[in-house]
């Protein structure tokens, strides 16, 4: 599934890969419409009918992920509203074990996320995730989302890497397809990003897992080789 021996760098998505996507789905589909309805004196359903098509129209663009954009467009403090449900932020199953195994394997681990810096800071504060990886890059630093193949070239300016020895792990098929087009040698898809929803269908051309326990044995084997145990 993954050729660990050929790697020196592992790029990791955050939301839906390391962290439970339930937080984000609950916020955009439930909490934001409820608070928007209160603010503008609408019914919850009226708010959903107005907001969700507007949000979905930006899918795949940097605006989709940008809290500044949505705060201005909706005249609401999106980051503040996210903090209201911050107790829902949490790790996906087996993630901490996986990150620990990455550390002992000698591989460089870099979070490469489309998350805006403001909610990113909230999630890092809640999880302590920054201490478990070597670096974190938000696509907002580069002005384009991971879905754009040019993102991967620009990423070299922030965290240099070799395409032929890099793995990208993500729950987004469009992102993984973009990475492959940009020459990333290996990709791995996560099929169960939201703990409150069932898994998705597998991608026909990209190796897929439900949880990281499926790749932990092989990664730990590399770790034991690298440490001589």
From TrEMBL:
<dbReference type="InterPro" id="IPR050155">
    <property type="entry name" value="HAD-like_hydrolase_sf"/>
</dbReference>
<keyword id="KW-0479">Metal-binding</keyword>
<dbReference type="InterPro" id="IPR023214">
    <property type="entry name" value="HAD_sf"/>
</dbReference>
<dbReference type="GO" id="GO:0006281">
    <property type="term" value="P:DNA repair"/>
</dbReference>
<keyword id="KW-0378">Hydrolase</keyword>
<dbReference type="Pfam" id="PF00702">
    <property type="entry name" value="Hydrolase"/>
</dbReference>
<dbReference type="GO" id="GO:0046872">
    <property type="term" value="F:metal ion binding"/>
</dbReference>
<dbReference type="GO" id="GO:0008967">
    <property type="term" value="F:phosphoglycolate phosphatase activity"/>
</dbReference>
<protein>
    <submittedName>
        <fullName>Putative hydrolase of the HAD superfamily</fullName>
    </submittedName>
</protein>
<dbReference type="InterPro" id="IPR036412">
    <property type="entry name" value="HAD-like_sf"/>
</dbReference>
<dbReference type="GO" id="GO:0005829">
    <property type="term" value="C:cytosol"/>
</dbReference>
